[in-house]
Design brief:
Elements (H helix, E strand, L loop, with lengths): L2 H24 L1 E8 L2 H17 L3 E8 L1 H11 L8 E5 L3 H6 L3 E2 L8 H7 L8 E2 L2 E2 L2 E13 H7 L8 H11 L1 E2 L5 E6 L7 H12 L5 E2 L4 E2 L4 H12 L16 H6 L3 E7 L3 H5 L6 E4 L11 E11 L4 H14 L2 H10 L3 E2 L2 H4 L2 H4 L5 H6 L3 E2 L6 H16 L5 H21 L1
Helix pairs in contact: 2-13, 8-9, 17-18
Length: about 425
């Protein structure tokens, strides 16, 4: 080997080594936090692997906690300069996170509001303040009607219901009672602790011609003729000898459906993964029932990712890159395939393949007529709906009186929240 050739090889090796050392020296690690849900963790593992392959100088460490502990741990870690650089949060928590100085706005040059407004479903605009976005989702959710195909066949129901009348008829055929008249199998699940409080607010009330709130969700508006009609219809499903459901049946509506003891069940697209893992359960899904004149309404929600105030300098730059990837079309398709939650962009969700999918399609089509509730305190507002139904079903109060009590109590929550 000639000396010059040897020298070139040696210099090349030195250069490669120096590049490697430089790359290691410039490497940065960021932390990503989300609550534990097995499908979500699996999806994020895949996204992190893809991102790190494309960005070898950035490492993403994922940490997850049980849902019950999640908000507490986030609130304690970030002010101490610890914890996540990118964090997942429920859209309804945004105001709390901003007020507590836990997150910072997305950079306008990378996420210009005009681009986000154009590319994402309109519901994400709840994350916008003026001309800047604070957070963005990878996926969104809507509601649909799950049905047990075996129970439908046994009852002689030939097709899933498309409207309220068909829903009542199908549920009646699938409801079973014992010799004492007690319901042993419900035709339709019911319970405000699950997704029904969303269905009642953004679905039934609007289908009856009303609005759940006005003034950008600052003012309760459901104490109205439409709200009363929606409430009477809802609690009426469990009333009398022809009841098609029972509140509290098997404790949780989703448990009754998974156990094969319920003919139909309203739930979110996030339930798909767990139902697929339920042995022996044969199910299908269709859009929420319409009114007789074809009026439809749905509820949509989402979890978002945001850059925390902990992220500065090179960690901030890495966090911005990671945010770009997890809100990309590629990431949204991965999330749909693994978790079952819907892409946050029409460019992904409304492809022919996805929109016409027999499982995802009903949820994706439901986004076209969905509304997103802006909660001040979701758990407290949900509890008021639980108590509203209990006053009617357990205490015998009139629907009108119970509705008025709920509206007054919820308005107080909203007034106190927005006053602060």
């Amino acid at each position: 080997m000639k000396f010059g050739t040897f020298k070139a090889i040696a210099l090349g090796a030195v250069t490669s080594t120096m590049a490697l050392v430089g790359s290691v020296a410039n490497a940065v690690e960021i932390e990503y936090w989300q609550y534990f849900f097995d499908a979500r963790v699996a999806a994020m593992d895949q996204l992190i692997e893809n991102f790190e392959a494309a960005n070898p100088d950035i490492t993403v460490k994922m940490t997850h906690f049980p849902y019950a502990d999640y908000r507490t741990k986030v609130a304690a870690a970030i002010p101490a300069g610890e914890g996540p650089d990118v964090v997942q949060l429920f859209y309804g928590w945004l105001n709390d996170y901003v007020a507590a100085d836990l997150i910072q706005p997305l950079p306008a040059d990378t996420f210009p509001a005009s681009m986000v407004d154009k590319e994402f479903f309109p519901m994400v605009q709840a994350m916008k303040d003026g001309d800047q976005y604070w957070a963005l989702p990878t996926a969104v959710r809507s509601l649909a009607l799950f049905y047990n195909t075996r129970l439908m066949e046994e009852a002689g129901v030939t097709a899933p219901p498309t409207n309220f009348a068909e829903l009542q008829e199908a549920a009646a055929k699938m409801t079973k009672r014992d010799g004492a008249g007690n319901i042993t199998q419900v035709g339709m699940t019911a319970g405000m602790t699950a997704q029904d409080h969303h269905w009642w607010r953004e679905g039934l009330i609007r289908q009856m011609g009303g609005e759940p709130y006005t003034d950008d969700y600052h003012t309760v508006a459901y104490n109205s003729e439409a709200g009363l009609k929606a409430l009477e219809m809802y609690v009426g499903m469990a009333d009398g000898d022809d009841a098609i459901t029972a509140f509290g049946f098997m404790d949780e509506p989703q448990a009754a459906f998974k156990a094969g003891r319920a003919g139909m069940h309203i739930d979110g697209s996030f339930r798909i993964g767990s139902l697929n893992k339920t042995r022996g359960l044969k199910w299908g899904v269709t859009e929420l029932p319409a009114t007789a004149d074809g009026t439809r309404s749905n509820y949509s929600s989402y979890w978002v990712n945001a850059i925390t105030t902990k992220a500065t300098d090179e960690k901030y730059d890495a966090a911005v890159k990671f945010m770009q990837y997890v809100t990309s079309d590629e990431a949204m398709q991965v999330w749909l395939d693994v978790v079952g939650e819907l892409p946050a962009k029409p460019s992904v969700g409304l492809t022919d393949e996805n929109a016409n999918n027999e499982v995802y399609g009903p949820f994706i089509r439901g986004l076209a007529y969905a509304n997103t509730t802006k909660f001040a305190n979701e758990s407290a507002q949900r509890q008021l709906m639980v108590e509203m139904v209990e006053r009617i079903t357990l205490q015998g109060m009139s629907a009108a009186d119970s509705l008025a009590i709920a509206a007054e109590a919820e308005q107080k929550i909203l007034d106190e929240y927005y006053a602060d």
